[in-house]
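User: I need a structural model of Era protein from Symbiodinium necroappetens for a docking pre-check later this week. Nothing fancy, just the predicted structure tokens so I can convert them on my end. Input:
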Amino acid sequence: MAPLAAVMMGKSGVGKTTFYNLLCETDHAAEYSSKSLTRQLFRSDVTHGQQVFSVIDTPGVDSADEVLKHSVLLHAALTNGPVNAIFVMVEYNSRCDSALDEFDRAIRILKPDYHNMVVVVIAKFDNAPPRHVTQIQEDYKEAFRSEGFPRLMFYSSNQSAREVAVAMIEFMKAQHPKTLQYTDQEFLKFFRVADETRAQKKAVQKHIEEIDSIISSYVDLVPTVCQEPDRDEIILSAIAACRYDVDKVYEQFNQEHGSNMIDMDCYTQSIQLQKAIDMKQRSFTTKAKEYMSYNPDDAKDWRNFVRKCVHCDEVWVKVSGCNGVTQCGNREKSQDVSDKPWYKYSFEMLADGRRMLLRNNACDRRSSTKSASSSGKHRGCGKDINWSELPRLTDAEMQTLYEVKGLQEVLTGMQQHAGHKDMKAYRDKVDTSFTK
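Assistant: Understood. Predicted structure tokens for Era protein:
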């Protein structure tokens, strides 16, 4: 049976380190401070009878300095290994709503999938009026239960280490261990990467407002093109154009402030802006795709694996790989084609802040790129393309694909090739089972 493991979280000054010192018989700094005193991770084993469990103490989730460092430490603590429970400490408040607000801020770094691992610890509960302790506990339990967090424990400074350990073990035994995981994008989404003081916010606020204005104009545009016969291609082009426009804002910010990014605090401003761009663009992309006649992200729809380049109309079949940025073929970068991946359409900003769809004459451009690709030596125009934003083939184009004679014979021949058989036999022999 795997040993039990717990992680402790909470804002600075809530009493995590005092709680940890009591359990682990340590003496880490825990005096009052407006800043987080924990600047490294502490992990100790706690023994209660025959039961041993490990506890990790973490920096405050609201630290005002070394923000990125604290986020890296919090991420490391949460993803270090299997965890049975995440104990989130919240200071007792006579107003339960205020305690809930503090709790909401503390768990922002947790993905929703991990909320069922949370145990709420109401710290400094000895500050509650003794005559009303039972009623206050019931009120707290009901309030947190209604928010989806039914597991609570109340901690007072006069409790013994044994009492605290027994309560924690009960909660940990009720949960199967789970290893938490965050992708790089999720780290930017859930963790703080820059100081959110007034000075930091002011440095990026102007650019965020500009980003909001750009994205808002595209959000308003999408519903207006729903009656267009080529609406799917227009919407995908609008998504690409929007990303291009907001990335220009990010580049402008780096040009203006790049020379000042001489320390981590300055650099994290740039990360904070990139985080805002990613989140807002992701939200717009999700909304825009709802207006399309098909789901371009459906992995079960084989038609999503056949798409064409928006620069030269070359048709590609994706057999493996991701849905991100790649190149159309392997042509040299010096080829003279449009820099924008939505050259067929443009989206002009009007004086009132709305965007107008314009159709460009792309015939000459595409005929030139096709002739450059017709030598047989290379296929494709070599421009950057984003697979998830490429249009699918129309029904007429798909019908032409069906009529390609010998296509099935070619695929069958590939599968009968000796190299294909050898590779399949090798993969079948590899032991992919887990060992203890």
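Before docking, keep this in mind: Confidence is low (pLDDT under 50) at residues 28-39, 331-338, 363-375, 430-436.
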